[in-house]
Amino acid sequence: MGLMKLGIAGVGVLGPGLDGWPRACAVLAGGEPYHKTPFQPVPPQLLPANERRRANLSTRLALGVAAEACRHAGCDPQITAAVFASATGDTEIAHQLLESLADPAPTVSPTRFHNSVHNAAAGYFSIATSSHAASTSIAAGDASFASGLLLAASQVTCEERPVLLVSYDLPFPAPLGDTRPIAAPFACALVLVPPGSGRPLKLVFCPLDARRTTLEDPQLEALRLGVPAARSLPLLRALAQPDGVPTRISLPAGSGRVELEVDGAG
Prior knowledge:
Blueprint: E1 4-14, H1 21-28, H2 49-54, H3 57-73, E2 81-85, H4 91-102, H5 110-116, H6 120-129, E3 135-138, H7 144-159, E4 163-169, H8 176-179, E5 186-193, E6 199-207, H9 218-226, H10 233-240, E7 247-253, E8 256-262
Parallel strand pairs: 2-3, 2-4
Antiparallel strand pairs: 1-5, 1-6, 4-5, 6-8, 7-8
């Protein structure tokens, strides 16, 4: 795959100690120390009341960062294509469904089944924004963020229009959490745009090797390693820098790696 040039016009973040892009930007740029404090996403006010009551944590995470990124970019989510990337989807619903099926008289709530599909967050987003634009929901394990970024960047390049990327993950309850540990709820969103606007970004897909970008702060590095969606943190850190030399980032992505270069001019 050849070199792709595009821009990043908007960012959204929700995670422990990184509650919103302004706070995350200050921490990742080194202006504030990182503290792993809890957070609680609120139900998206864009959703009608019935859907707002049904929205689980995964949906609140995804829609929270999507709304922030779109506001930051000044783009209309109603007409913006979207890619939703999550390694595991809604872990709480998966746990609840398995508990229901293990019951001697198994019954599955229609609402739980409705929320169990992998594109549930994308569906809620289209309802919240009255969007008829295309959306894709993907899963690629720990490479879900990098794979989603590659897909969204390809769409921007081929179709020459903005694409919203949303990546989100949250822990499984026990006992599933012992088998597939995820350290904390975390989500981020990027509005990717054609070159000429936004923060310049170069991206290329290369053969897999041992290179990968890490973080100096041990708590942030633990978060990066502990949550698939938090593999985005090196890119978010680069975007938080107001100026300086270009930043190069390497992210493993399935059978290869995504090599990124973020322009140092904010």
